[in-house]
Design a protein that fits this description.
Distance between the termini: 29 Å
Largest sheet: none
Number of domains: 1
Strand content: under 5%
Structural class: mainly alpha
Radius of gyration: 14 Å
Length: 120
């Protein structure tokens, strides 16, 4: 990803992995890497309140430090589900990340079109 407003290349890679884990797009939907999901998330972060931006980036950096993306998809998803079951705070973080990933991915014009959305 070039021209990122907020995300470092490492954070961008971890977000792509996170989105892939949470959304698991399957054909005919394109993989996360073939969409503007990472750029859309980066643009959203650029306008998000500072605390939200710092929190999201902290989670991405923590996952990167744990080499979370090197794990098989099933293990990655299981680890996120454990965090969500640990309590309200964990559940809130995972749901916020899932929502951000979904908006970023499903907002891609090609993905939207494949799902039958036709903008005005």
């Amino acid at each position: 990803m070039t021209g990122a407003a907020v995300l470092s290349p490492r954070e961008a890679r971890v977000f792509a992995c996170l989105a892939d884990t949470l959304l698991a797009p399957a054909p005919p939907l394109p993989p996360i890497a073939d969409t503007d999901a990472v750029a859309a998330f980066d643009a959203w972060l650029a306008t998000a309140p500072r605390l939200n931006r710092l929190g999201a980036r902290a989670v991405l950096l923590a996952l990167g430090a744990l080499r979370w993306c090197r794990r098989p998809p099933r293990e990655r998803l299981a680890s996120l589900e454990r965090v969500a079951r640990a309590g309200a705070a964990g559940r809130g973080v995972i749901e916020a990340l899932r929502a951000a990933a979904a908006v970023s991915y499903y907002g891609d014009p090609r993905v939207s079109e494949l799902l039958g959305y036709t903008p005005r």
